[in-house]
Structures are given as structure tokens and as C-alpha cells.
Design goal:
By secondary structure, the chain is mainly alpha-helical. The chain has two domains: 13-45, no CATH class; 46-127. It is built from six helices and two strands. It has helices spanning 3-12, 26-32, 35-43, 47-79, 84-114, 119-127, and strands at 16-17, 23-24. A two-stranded antiparallel ribbon has the order 1-2. Helix 4 packs antiparallel against helix 5 (84-114).
């Protein structure tokens, strides 16, 4: 069967049900699985929300990369410990660093989520 024929048949079938049993048109069901359209619907079409999502994702990627390096460094520090005191000090320093890093990261992500749009971005969004 040709692709256009299949698309035509799908449109003729009318509403379909999702997992909750709610009726949807085929177009609505298709849009739910389209990454860009689905994201726009989730975020309400807000350019600010999309920018915040991207910024927080980039920040988290940076943070996880930095933490991974610190965690690996901690493992090599542990292998160099000669006494129980060295071991305790290494654990204390690593735990303290991790707690501070995660608290700082929480503040960064919160700041991104609470950020206001730039005036130019508002005008561009209105003109679109």
C-alpha cells in the first residue's frame, strides 16, 4: 500500500484512544510523538521555557562532567592512602566537596528556572 494511501486511511479512522482512554484525533496522537511538537505542547509554546530547559540541560551536563572528574580523582586519592587517618581525611574532603557542589548546582538550576526573559527575546517572540 502506498504511503499516501496509508495516511489517507489513518485520517479516515477518526479518533483514537490513548492509554488513559481519552479520545484523540490521529493528528493529536501523531503530534504527541513528534519531539518538537510534543515539547512545544508540554511547555505551552513558551520560548522562555524552552530556553530555560536548554540552559538547565547544559548546566547539568557541565556539572555531571565536573563531578565525574572529581569522583575519579577521589578514587585515585583513596589508592594513595597509607594510614586510616589518610583514608578518613580523603573521605571527609570528598563528601564535603560533593555536598557543596550539589548545593551550588541546586542554586544554579533554580536561578535558571527563575530567570526572566531578555527584553529582546520578548519582542522576538511577540513578532513571531
Amino acid at each position: 500500500m502506498a504511503t499516501s494511501q496509508m495516511q489517507s486511511d489513518a485520517k479516515k479512522k477518526g479518533p483514537v484512544s490513548d492509554a488513559s482512554g481519552a479520545a484523540q484525533t490521529n493528528d493529536e496522537a501523531r503530534d504527541m510523538f513528534m519531539p518538537i511538537v510534543g515539547t512545544e505542547k508540554l511547555l505551552g509554546g513558551s520560548a522562555l521555557a524552552m530556553n530555560q530547559l536548554v540552559a538547565s540541560s547544559q548546566e547539568l551536563a557541565r556539572f555531571y562532567s565536573t563531578r565525574m572528574k572529581k569522583d575519579l580523582s577521589f578514587m585515585s586519592t583513596l589508592t594513595a592512602c597509607k594510614t586510616p587517618q589518610d583514608f578518613s581525611k580523603a573521605w571527609y574532603n570528598a563528601a564535603s566537596s560533593a555536598v557543596h557542589d550539589y548545593a551550588d548546582e541546586f542554586d544554579r538550576i533554580l536561578a535558571i528556572g527563575l530567570s526572566e526573559p531578555e527584553p529582546d527575546a520578548i519582542m522576538q517572540h511577540r513578532d513571531a
